Amino acid sequence: MSKQTRLCFLPSGELTYYNSEDPLPDYPLLNHAQLWPKLCHNDSLILNAIKLNSQSLLLRLPDDVLRPILQDAVREPLEFSLEREAYWRLYDDDIYWSSYSDDIDDSAMFGPARGWIRYMATYRLIWVCKRFHALVLPFMYGNVSLDVTTHYFDCPPQEKLFRDEILRRPLLQNYIRHLAVYNQSLQSPIVQLACAFPHINKLSLKRVRNEGEIDLSLIGPAKDQSRTASFISIQFHSLHTRPEAVKRFLEWPKELHEFIVNDMTYTGYSWAETEPDPSYRWNYRLLVDVLSPQKDHLRFLDLGWLGYDRDQNTFQVSAFPNLRSMALSVAYQYPNEKACPNWLTPSLNTLILDLHMNDIQCGPGSHNCMHTGGAESVVSFARMAREWSNKDGGAVGLRRIGIRVYSRGYDAWEEEDEWSCRHGKYDQEMWTNLVQYLKDIQGQGFEAFWL
Questions:
Q1: Residue 83 in domain
Q2: What is the pLDDT of residues 299-313, one digit of tens each?
Q3: Which end of the chain has fewer CB atoms surrounding its CB within 10 Å, N or C?
Q4: Nearest CA to 289 among 257, 320, 324?
């Protein structure tokens, strides 16, 4: 087997190569993460980097060759600085758990210090010369993930570091295309700042919490800022806020094309158990009002199960005249004849039906998601949709019906769910059902697919 050679950035700023079969270079460890500006901009090692790299053959490569090398090299350090989970990826399980031993110094074993030093080494490099500044910065800031959780050991205060840096260097804001933020309210400074990024395409907000009384004026834009945000896609995961707060926030984008929200309740639980405050309970009727600021611009909806009001089949898709694709969770209520006049509009071309249950501990589970009853409900709806389309004289735009089987397409999924779904004891039944029901959907004149 041939050996793989990859680029490595040393903490000094020096460029070198290492063989993939060899251990990673021994980076020095920090007892505590120091402040970003001191380490990345005022460190004397930056001044030495030019001399260190002057003999490197790598620097003589043309931009079109060097760019993909740098892109691969900076991807992991970016995660190490801006997403908590990536701090642990240098460590296998036995090292991770051994760090809990009384005989081992935690500060020398846990990931933040080691991950942070790797990130600093890469970050120094971009200030060495204009060439690296132009090549590396777009990679580092194109896709940023900020976990603002504060109770994880020595993780640096990521939100503050990031906010201070992009305010101090406004040019960096031009590179951000996707920003994911964890554990922040809609009126938090970092979320509000994201609305001003000039080229941002997607905003992902995970574990949003707006508790108690909400001042809507702090969530939405001022009069002169309405319809100024550039992001065209927004994704909510583990959303816990009042519907009117999200409605107010949706006054920021110029044009919102995609709205994604995952399940808001769990299998076997009622709203009384999971959400005692009625003002925080969502349903599909309220969703129409929430999305009204962007109703003329929306093209894609991906909706988890919103609750136990069971009003999904009366969801007024006609409120969104340009909606082209929609994904719906139908695990808790199968579509019936009421859904046809409400879902089937002239603009809706693609409908994806999701049969996954949402477990309170594991999230949406693939376990037996293609059981016979659920799969038959999708085919039954295809028949009803064909009958309605024929009766409606061609005013129905639906051409494609999909079944979401093994992937929701966003972070709610775990790899083990995918694996058990394909290889568990229900595997043969699920595959057999899938193949048969895709054929049945095609038999009704629709393009059938799965994802």
A1: yes
A2: 999 998 887 688 899
A3: N
A4: 320
